[in-house]
Amino acid sequence: MKQNQFSETYSKFLQKFLKPRKLLKIIFDCSNGTAGLILEKALSGQSPDQSLNYKIINGNPDGDFPAHGPNPLKSGATKQLQLAVKKYKADLGIIFDADGDRMLCVDDKGRFVNPGASARLLIWHLKPKKAIVDVGTSWLVKRFKIHDSRFMIHESKVGQYFIKQKMRIENADFGAEHSGHYYFKEFFSLDSGILAAIEIINAVSKLPYRLSDFVDLLPRYYRSEIDLGLKRVDPENLLKAVERAYQREALPTGRQAVKISRLDGLTMEFPDWWFNLRFSQTEPLVRLNIEATEKFKLQEEVLRFKKLLNLK
């Protein structure tokens, strides 16, 4: 009884945020997790002028995850959603992870949307004064300039604990991680996949064109995330060695890093690319994120990094 009461309360709380400006067709993939239980109730409570044309797939909770794995960022996890978006000619596809705290998007052409692009769309829509992003967040967000001099972006370590803490310290309105977590001041500075989905719907309904057009109009960046098999290394010595190597290499070329940060691992930014090298907090591995303005530059730097670390 209490469980049903809590889900009703939560659903009604979410309903007040749903304010689409036009009718949209949306496919939701709940990954056989918990999001479907709340999503159906939240959407069924719409007023007639807010009605969405929507379809929920994989909405029944099942711990065996028969449709696909519970992590939407894993290869192949969005395939069913992408096919459904194209089949039903939907305006938007949204997928949640198993516990519903992450959300990722597919555009109207069935293409996976970079989480940085989703964060940028949410910032444009919500117009926060302060936003918190993790060190792995794309230049799509970090280089985003809006016509409000009061808008500020603060960086945080990767992880919910650090983002939530930074949100409260800075009294920020919005937060984002590249993994698909989005945080809202109105949600007690916590992350919510369903609230993020609702605000994405609101944002897409405001666009003067389709979501695919919004994505295509954004600056193009090329990105790679690699888990490196370096388990028996001293973290501090590795980061120092990498920093010295890139600084030494840059001296004769004049292409020194324009920014070096040790906030979380090592981040070095150059004019046309950047990387973050950090030790995972949840797995025994080193994680490398690289982003560049050109595809060939990304490939070049990935190979250079592997050579530096004696990896194949």
- Describe the main β-sheet briefly: 5 strands, mixed
Global mean pLDDT: 91
Strand arrangement across the biggest beta sheet: 2-1-3-4-5
Helix content: 25-40%
Number of helices: 10
Low-pLDDT runs: none
Order of helix and strand elements from N to C terminus: HEHEHEEEHEHEHEEEHHEHEEEEH
End-to-end separation in angstroms reads 57 Å
**What radius of gyration results from the CA coordinates?**
20 Å
Strand content: 15-25%
Q: Shape, please?
A: globular
Number of strands: 15
Alpha-beta classification: alpha/beta
What does the model show?
The chain is of the alpha/beta class and 312 residues long. Helices cover 36% and strands 22% of the residues. The protein has ten helices and 15 strands. A five-stranded mixed β-sheet has the order 2-1-3-4-5, with helices on both faces. A five-stranded mixed β-sheet has the order 7-6-8-9-10, sandwiched between helices. Strands 11-15-14-13-12 form a five-stranded antiparallel β-sheet, with helices on one face. Helix 1 (2-15) packs across helix 2 (35-44) and helix 4 (115-126) crosses helix 7 (193-206). The chain is globular, with a radius of gyration of 20 Å. The chain starts with a helix and ends with a helix. The model has no long low-confidence stretch (mean pLDDT 91).
